[in-house]
Design brief:
266 residues, alpha/beta, Rossmann fold, 41% helix, globular
């Protein structure tokens, strides 16, 4: 499977489709498999590039501190290695945090920006409940079955868990063979917790879509509203009765919203 040297590490990536490049950035502890529903949809119009962040999946996991700036530079270096000068960038959760930093550090590399189920961090952000925060930080050390139960509660809406319980459980269980090692997960989490882009959001000049589920229990959707207010001319889409992984719960609607935005603004 393809791996390239980028920013001093080996990064695993996959590329499908043709057209303008669309870089998809996964979240905390996740791999490129997070986007399995989105790739076939977007590959009809774009060259879709997915990859494993530093510390996850088949990419290198150097035992050193991670930062969101480092992740953003990894993404830019991956683009260099693949001969991509400019791309649309769509990040989910931690991937959305990385995408914000990418937009600030590498504005000339960006066509359109999509920030999914994410936060800008720092003291101005709206925090999850203490219970949700504790569940997230303790996830890597739990036995698989117990971790699945917590992920289901934290990442999916009550409606989705009630109406499609088998689908939700099977999707989460399929990711567990790819779990990020606890030490690398901790380094990724620290990078997220020390991030603060609130004062810099107005500097983002790329056309921006902010998108989330209205019942996100992990990253309260008020963060999306604040991001959309602070980035000039940003658009906001919130899906009612959808949770953190809204792009799993309502994939057709979510992908259509992103594709429509990129066609109009990107």
């Amino acid at each position: 499977m393809p791996r390239v040297q980028a920013n001093g590490i080996n990064i695993y990536y996959e590329s499908q489709g043709e057209g303008e490049p669309l870089l998809l950035i996964a979240g905390l502890g996740a791999t490129h498999h997070l986007w399995e529903l989105q790739v076939p949809s977007f590959a009809r119009w774009y060259r879709v590039v997915t990859f494993d962040n530093r510390g996850s999946g088949e990419s290198d996991k150097p035992p050193e501190p991670y930062s969101i700036a480092l992740f953003a530079d990894d993404a830019a270096a991956l683009m260099d290695a693949l001969g991509i000068q400019r791309a649309h960038v769509y990040g989910q959760s931690m991937g959305g945090i990385i995408a914000q930093e990418f937009a600030l550090r590498h504005p000339q590399r960006l066509r359109g920006l999509v920030l999914g189920c994410t936060t800008f961090g720092g003291p101005n952000s709206v925090l999850p409940s203490p219970q949700a925060a504790a569940m997230l930080s303790g996830m890597p050390n739990l036995p698989p079955e117990q971790a699945v139960e917590r992920v289901l509660e934290l990442f999916y809406s009550p409606r989705y868990r009630r109406e499609r319980p088998k689908e939700a459980r099977e999707r989460i269980q399929s990711y567990f063979p790819l779990r990020t090692p606890p030490d690398a997960y901790a380094r990724q989490l620290v990078a997220c917790l020390t991030f603060d882009a609130y004062d810099r959001l107005p500097q983002i000049a790329a056309p921006t879509l902010v998108i989330n589920g209205a019942e996100d229990a992990l990253i309260p959707p008020e963060n999306s509203r604040i991001i959309a207010q602070r980035i000039p001319d940003a658009e906001l889409v919130l899906f009612p009765e959808a949770g953190h992984l809204f792009f799993h719960e309502v994939p057709e609607e979510a992908d259509a919203a992103v594709a429509d935005f990129l066609r109009r603004r990107g």
